[in-house]
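=== RUN LOG ===
request id: a7f3
mode: sequence -> structure
chains: 1
length: 337
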Amino acid sequence: MRSRQLIVAANAMLVMTVACAPSIGVPGPTQMQAWAVYFDGDRGLAELEEHGDLFDRVSLFGYELSPDGSPVPAPNVKTMLGPFLRLAQEKGFEPWVTVVNDVRHSGDSVVAKDSTVVHELLVDSSRRDNHVRELVALVVEAGFQGLHLDYEQVAESDSAQFQGFIERLSGELRQRERGLEVVLEPVNGPLPAAGTSTVIVMAYDLFGAHSGPGPRSTPDFVTGLGPRAEVDADSAAALAVAVRGFAWRPNDEVTSLDWSEAQQRAAGAQRARRSAADVPNARLDDGTEIWFEDRASLISKWRAAWLAGFRRLAIWRLGGNDERLFDLLRDLRPDSE
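=== RESULT ===
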């Protein structure tokens, strides 16, 4: 019932705000943020050098977990940190940091989204308290303004412990005038207790490397994420949109495509836009099928997000983008005119 009331109220607000909305006719996000990632650091920093003033907040992705659960820098992060903090000062965005529950055992041996290590941290009160201290120290000592906690595949059975952990972590960061945002998967995983933190909901991977061809997300998919935003009703949740695409070759090989690469490969190909998904796709001469994003698809998703109760927009991710994306983001900003 609450979701329906939110959508009705949002539609009414849309009518009232269209006169002061950006030229594209969509109310702009109240805040815009992005991620710069360790595995594409040079290109991400270059885009911040050129377009960093677009964003209110940029998060350095990031830090991983050691096998015992301590936050540790991912490869290349130490090299990125100095330039990243310099750009934050020069461009005016808040520098945040993302900690993800990927566990690096040795070299390139990484267990992605390790729920076991998170479970062990949550159920042991002494380890949980120590983990809070380690995370707070990382944020404060490295010079970040806040923490994006990206712990995925956490068991629903750990909900109570997870909520207590978030409440404690949020309180400790707030005492030091630092922020906390919890990154949520679109469907699975426990929610933090209302009022303990703001949240970012991942709006992607409806289709991807794990599936056959299709869009990473659709407006209907975004609309369905509204209940994940309700935990953050007081401060307005953020929607994280992926701007990259995927290519499916006839031999079932799947590869990720940069925003720019997808636009280039689709140029001149047999293109289509399925009205139900409002996401462009193209079939190449060799039979490869690609699904990607463009201006129209991202506007459509933001409109769905706004009506579902989201007010902030997060971009996954910097690196491999071009002026078409950044021009759109400038148009979306309510203060861009």
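=== NOTES ===
Residues 2-244+297-331 form a domain with the TIM Barrel fold (CATH 3.20.20.80).
The first strand starts at residue 31 and ends at 37.
=== END ===
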